[in-house]
Amino acid sequence: MFNQVTKKVRNGSIVLFHNNAKYIVQALPLILDHLLKEGYTIVPVSELIYKDNYYIDHTGRQRKIGT
Question: Cα–Cα distance between 22 and 13 in angstroms, integer?
C-alpha cells in the first residue's frame, strides 16, 4: 500500500483510502508522514472543488459555467 501510493502520487493527486481496508491503520500514518516530508500538502477534497461559477461534467472535470 505504501509503495503503491508514494510511487504514483503527483501534484494534484487525489488519494482515496477506505477506512476498512486491511492494514490502513498501520499504513496511513507512514504514507502521510512520507508525503509531508516530500513537500506535499494534505487537504480535504472539499478544498479542491471550485464552488462558485463551476460545475463538474460527466468526466469528473470541473468546468467554468459559460465556457
Answer: 22
Residue 31, class by beta-carbon neighbours within 10 Å (0-12 exposed, 13-18 middle, 19+ buried)?
A: buried
Residue 47 exposed, middle or buried by CB count within 10 Å (0-12, 13-18, 19+): exposed
For the chain, the residue count is: 67
Residue 45 confidence (pLDDT): 84
The reply to whether the predicted model has a pTM over 0.90 is no
For residue 54, the surrounding DSSP H or E stretch is: strand 54-56
Task: Give the list of residues 6+ apart from residue 11 with CB closer than 8 angstroms, or none.
Answer: 40
Residues ≥6 apart with Cβ < 8 Å to 21: 1
Please name every residue paired with 54 in a beta bridge, in sequence order, or none if there are none. Answer: 64
